[in-house]
Structure formats: C-alpha cells, structure tokens
Write a structure and sequence with these properties.
By secondary structure, the chain is mainly α. It has a domain of 241 residues. It is built from 24 helices and no strands. α2 runs parallel beside α16, α3 packs across α16 and α16 runs antiparallel to α21. The longest helix is centred in the middle third of the chain and has 31 residues. It comes from Anaerosacchariphilus polymeriproducens. Keywords: Antiport, Cell membrane, Membrane, Transmembrane, Transmembrane helix, Transport. Belongs to the NhaC Na(+)/H(+) (TC 2.A.35) antiporter family. Pfam families: Na_H_antiporter (PF03553). This is Na+/H+ antiporter NhaC.
C-alpha cells in the first residue's frame, strides 16, 4: 500500500490558485461557477494521487463532505418553499405595504438592522431572516429610494448578528461542538465583541440613513407602490399571523425544518383563503413563484423570488463546494497553508488573525460555511491550548472568520443564497456588511490588547462534563 504524504506548498498553491483562476476566468466568460468548482475537484485529485491517496479514498471524502453539509441544502430548499408561498399568500406584500406606511426613510437602515437582528436571534437562522423579513425590507427600501446594496448590507448585518448569538442557530451549535465547549459558554464568549461591533455598525447605518434617506421621500412613488400591491393582493394585518407562528415555534426550540414546512403550509392556506388562489396555484407557488405584474419593475423583481425551483442552482453550487472542501480536508491542503501561518503566531493578536484567515479560506475554497466551521477548530485548536487561551476565544474567532465572512464569497453557500434572495450581487452588498468588518476589527484589537481574551484556567469543556456524567 502506497504511503501517504502531505502535499508541499507548491502543490497546495497549484490546487487553490488553480481554483481561483478558474473561478475568475469562468466568471469573466459568464460560464457558471459550478463548472469551475467541478474542475477544481480534479486538480485536487491529481495532487491527491501524487501524495499517495487512492481514488476510492478521495471519492469517499467528496461524499463525506457533501453529507456534512446536507443540513444547509435541506434548509435552503425549505426556505425557497417558504418564500414562494409567503409571497403568493400575501404575507411578504403585506409586510412591504405596512412598512412603507410607517417607516421613515431617515431611520430605515437602522430599523432594518434591528428588525433583522431580532428576527434572527428569535429564529436562529440568517437564511430564514433574509428570506422573510429581509425580502420585505428590500421592498420597503426600494420604495423609499434607498440604494439596494446598502439595504442588503443592513439586512445581512442584522441577520448574521442574530444567527451568531442565537442558541437555536445550527452554526452556533456546530461551532460550540467543534470547539468542545458548551453552547451557552460559546454565546457568552461571542457577546461582548459582537455587541461592540453591532453598536458600531448601528451608528454607521444611522448616519448613512440620514445621508441617503434624509431628504424628502418621493411620496408619489411610495403611494404608487402601495396602490399596486393593494390592487393585486388582499393586504391585511392577518397576513402577519404565519410569520408570528413560525417565530414563536422557533423560539420554543422546535426543529427548524418542520417549522418552516408548517409556515409554508400556512402560506398556501393564506393564498387560497385571502388571495383567492386556486388550491393548485397556491401549492404550485411552493415550487415556482406566480408572476406578478404591478407595473413597477423593482416590485415585480422582488415578488418573483422564492419557490424550491429558484434554489436548485444554489443547491448545485453548495453540493460541489462541499465535495471540494471534503477533498481539501482529506488531502491536507488547507493544513499546509495553516502550518505556514503557524510560524508567525506568538501571541493573541496573531492567533486571532490566523484563525480569521483560516476561517475565510474555508469559505473561499470550501464554498460553504460548514466547511469553515469544521476546519478552523481542527486546524487551530492545538495552538490555543499551547498558548493557554480559552476555547471560547477559538469558538468566537471561528464564527467571526467562518460564519460572518461566508456571505462575502460569491460562490459560497451563503453568498449564493443571499445574492439570489435579496436580488443584489455579492460584490455589490459586500462593502456594506459593516457588522462583519466591525466584529473582525474589534476581535483583532482584542487579540493584541488582551481585551476579552480569557485564559483556559476556568474553561469548562464539554468533554469534561460528558466524562463526569459517564462516571
């Protein structure tokens, strides 16, 4: 049996650089990114064969990588169904209508940040937040004349803030598990720096709101949007009921997939009872959205989103990306890069920066948040233990580098989903993801100054707790 060896730096750069080259080339030629990721599989397999890995082992690593991220695929499809039925059922149009009625342009961006963060904390899902409250805020912002990329930045800042701190979030639970600490210890470790970053981004969105929305809003356009929605949909406060049901059930820690399915069912019922749709049309909106013709382009663009069918292209990218991430883990390519970084780590500052870089690389080359969350603790945990830092710091930096940056990569699961659901390309909204930048800056400052950098003396690990229970 051929012995395995780790790839050298040149081989690692060959695979990662080759993938980036293909990604940018295919994007310039307007070829789907799916093919770039698929081709990258075979770059990795070529290096894998050179370093002693059998094809069977690499094939298994692909399927294992895909399996590890299937939760994301299932949630993505279910959120597509939810959005489709909630638009055709009049729920999203009602949110847009009443939002235009009560929200002033000057405080719109701050309001968006707060609403999306509260929704995400309550539900534990950034994707669900973007697909419901996020779509509604995009519609309201467009009606108020706020540039769509800035609105998307406020939506994502709120959605990721809540997702990071919610004990219901799958990314929060997975990160705590991978770092071998209790979920609530992880949340407590996240909270101080997340709150500082949230306040900083809130101030930035407030100032921006007065700049871009401080002038007198075009009331004629607002009234035109409201009248168009009112003429097509039966706008009513009762449309808020399905959203409240879903939020309450998620707060009660019910499983997200069945809750989203129930919310979709309520959207179908609302479409039949309150929008006058036939049962066939209402159910079909779960697969593909019913076209709306309001006469206003941006409103029609928002109302055509959703449906399981709209998510299939994203599912393809996520599956290919997860497979690529599995290959990189099997061959050990990311570990090679991380070891090079390890040579520069001598304290909390460089430890934090290195963790953030590894998390970002997981998203960049693994194309999925789950790859980053799984990879970063595996690579960085020994260094935290060696330097005596609490695993809470590891879990916090894993979330900052992995979860928060996932939406910045155009071909990652989060980047694809957020761009598709909000109707703004990743590179357009990226400059306005101010919560991400704020949290990363604060984390780096904390690393170098020792602010909220706890040692491991009082660090309670899940493994210790579990061993005591077994005894």
């Amino acid at each position: 049996m051929k012995s395995k060896k780790r790839p050298n730096l040149f081989q690692s750069i060959f695979v990662l650089g080759g993938f980036l080259f293909l990604a940018f080339l295919f994007n310039a030629l307007e070829i789907k990114i799916h093919l770039a990721i698929f081709c990258a599989w075979f770059l990795a397999m070529f290096v894998g064969k050179m370093t002693g890995h059998s094809y069977k082992e690499m094939e298994y690593s692909v399927t294992k990588g895909i399996y590890n991220g299937m939760d994301a695929v299932l949630i993505l499809l279910s959120v597509g169904v939810l959005v489709g039925t909630w638009i055709s059922g009049g729920i999203v149009p009602s949110l847009i209508y009443y939002g235009l009625k009560v929200i002033h342009p000057s405080i719109f961006l701050l309001t968006t940040l707060i609403i999306c963060s509260l929704t995400s904390v309550a539900t534990g899902t950034s994707w669900g937040t973007a697909g419901t409250a996020g779509i509604a805020m995009m519609g309201i912002g467009a009606g108020l004349g706020i540039p769509a990329p800035i609105t998307a930045g406020a939506v994502l800042s709120g959605a990721y803030f809540g997702d990071n701190l919610s004990p219901l979030s799958d990314s929060t639970i997975l990160t705590a598990s991978m770092c071998d600490i209790d979920v609530m210890d992880h949340v407590k470790g996240m909270f101080p720096l997340s709150l500082i970053g949230y306040i900083m981004s809130g101030i930035a969105f407030t100032i921006t709101g007065f700049i871009v929305g401080g002038g007198k809003a075009d009331l004629s356009q607002i009234n035109q949007v409201m009248n168009s929605l009112d003429s097509i949909f039966n706008i009513s406060l009762i449309s808020f009921v399905p959203m409240l049901v879903v939020i309450v059930l998620l707060i009660l820690k019910m499983p997200s997939l069945p809750v989203i399915f129930l919310g979709s069912g309520l959207g179908i019922v609302w479409g039949i009872i309150f929008q006058g749709l036939s049962p066939v049309s209402a159910i079909s909106s779960a697969w593909a959205q019913i076209p709306s013709n309001t006469g206003i382009d941006f409103v029609d663009e928002i109302l055509k989103r959703g449906g399981m069918n709209s998510m299939l292209e994203s599912v393809g990218i996520i599956i290919l990306g997860l497979g690529f991430g599995g290959l990189l883990d099997q061959i050990g390519i990311i570990k090679v890069i991380a070891d090079k970084i390890d040579n520069f780590i001598h304290g909390g500052g460089m430890l934090t920066i290195s963790s953030l870089i590894v998390g970002f690389l997981g998203n960049l080359f693994g194309s999925a948040m789950y790859v980053s969350i799984i990879l970063t603790p595996k690579v960085m945990a020994p260094k935290y233990d060696e330097l005596g830092y609490s695993r809470k710091i590891l879990s916090r930096n894993t979330e900052f580098g992995g979860t928060l940056t996932a939406g910045m990569i155009p071909w990652s699961d989060n980047g694809i989903f957020m761009a598709g659901i909000l109707g703004v390309s990743t590179l357009q909204y990226l400059p306005y993801m101010w919560l991400v930048f704020s949290c990363i800056i604060v984390a780096i400052i904390g690393g170098f100054t020792g602010l909220f950098m706890w040692d491991n003396k009082n660090d309670v690990r899940m493994s210790v707790v579990n061993n005591n229970i077994e005894k």
